[in-house]
Amino acid sequence: MEAIGPQRRDEPLLARRVRFHQSWYRAAVLGIQQYGETAGRTPRRLGSVLTDADALDGRNFSSPSARRFYDRRRSEGWGVDPVRCTKYLTSSQALTLNLLGPLEESPVWAARVLGEVLQRTDIDVVRRVWVEFAPRRRSEYLNDMTRVDALVAMGTSRGEELLAVEIKYSDRFNSRRVDIDRAPYRDLAESSGLWRDADSTLREPQVNQLVRCHALAAAVSGDLTGRPAAPTMLVLHHTDDVTSRGLVDGYVGHLADPTLVKAATLDEFVGILRRSARSAAQRAVARDLELRYVAESESEAVWQMSDDRSVRARRDGGRPHSRR
């Protein structure tokens, strides 16, 4: 428990469980006994944060390809948070890089994975992956600050196509509502035919972020692929995150073509990575991602011990009992 380090008791249960598993992963799998502290004006030591030295050593990346993916994205300019990506084991940006970095360097493997998760047989190859994507000239598209976690350019038997990917670990969809009931989105709704009822879709606050991400992929699809086809959206989320799945289900009801949006759990996605791996290196990447992000059963016994201790301590006025 000392190696696992400090936790936060003021978080929702899902966030606490994810943080604890990452703290366990650092100590038990990475073999790092020291933990770091958060950035900002009031630093806080947490078991799920790497030390500066371990962050610099790239220990938050699950593979060399993920580290190269991060370095390349950083060289392209603002978009990824260097502190969160390298120090915070719970970072969704680091998760995105770790999941997609190996696939970006293995286009055929990526095609197999996306084909299975999207339940499609026409995906031949992945051309390119952009992380934290936003167009350089926003005014030429939707004229707002929307970013997509990842855009994937795919070669299919029907032609070039974009996939927008949104990835949630323990974080939630942004509750901030952006006004999208305006000309750029109205024009896109008319030209793309994405939504059954633009009035309802653009004014629905619950699906605001999903609409913006899907719309951005549609707006740039012609320039990035040379073919303005309706993009698909994939949302990956933690198994216990019922909120994200509910929002996706709600958004599907707004679409003219409901097959354009798919939700999958991280367990499902990593399972597909493992099954579709064709080399020892690919299998090793999939196994590490499994241990790092979805195999919470590996840390369950220690979690139960920790959670049990904290509950009894609160019940007894802050006096933790020893376990015999």
Short structural description:
It comes from Barrientosiimonas humi. With 324 residues, the protein is of the alpha/beta class. The chain has 13 helices and five strands.
Structure description:
Mean pLDDT is 92; it is low at 311-324. Helix 3 packs across helix 5 and helix 5 packs antiparallel against helix 12 (280-294). The protein has a domain at 106-276. Helices cover 46% and strands 12% of the residues. The chain is of the alpha/beta class and 324 residues long. The chain is built from 13 helices and 5 strands.
How many individual β-strands?
A: 5
**Rg computed from alpha carbons, rounded to a whole number of angstroms:** 21 Å
In what order do the strands lie side by side in the largest sheet? 1-2-3-4-5
Contiguous uncertain segments of 5+ residues = 311-324
Structural class call reads alpha/beta
Distance between the termini: 15 Å
SS element count, helices: 13
Roughly what fraction of the amino acids lie in strands?
5-15%
Nearest-integer average pLDDT: 92
Helical percentage: 40-55%
Q: Major beta sheet, specifics?
A: 5 strands, mixed
